[in-house]
Amino acid sequence: MNLIDTDQQGEGGPAQSTGSGARRTLGLPRVRNAQQSWAPESADWGDEWDLDHKVAALWRAARLGPTVERLRRHVLGGGSQSIEPGQFRALDAVAGHGPVSIRTLADIMDVEPSTVTRAVVRLETDGLVFKRRADRDHREVLVELTDLGAARHQYFVDRAYRIYEEIFTVFDTSERALLADLLERMLVSTDAALARLDARAL
Description:
Layout: H1 51-64, H2 66-76, H3 85-97, E1 100-101, H4 102-109, H5 113-125, E2 129-133, E3 141-145, H6 147-167, H7 173-201
Antiparallel strand pairs: 1-3, 2-3
Helix pairs in contact: 1-2, 3-5, 4-5
């Protein structure tokens, strides 16, 4: 299954397979409404759809596609309370794990400490977090939510879950449970596959 992220999708520059056979891309044809189904744009695909490719492309669209970008803008663009995605990731990590050090935040978010530092500076400027010395080791600086930060975080979580509830109305309870199970298994499988690839690269 090809899960490589690339900007060469859709109308840009499709990634093509070498030699003869069907043309492969990392994207899917644009679907305009819920009545249309996902289908190959070209007859080159033949009669059968490559399920691995379809799952990979749908997963990529679910993370990086224009629909998800619109959802992100809707959730985080709360008028005067709007926040940038990177700052919200940091705010959410502090809410879930704080008080927490910059290095631990970087590990949680899987980014460089310098990236976290910039986000924390912005959050601190906006009065959403504050820094304090750790009780046991005064050399360590911890990041913690302010009351305003806790309220702002809850505001965005509530906005997100209101639209999630509407999105998931197309699934009944058993389908949601199955979807959650399949997504969890896919993420576990992805972590395992990447660990194997990293080990081979050593």
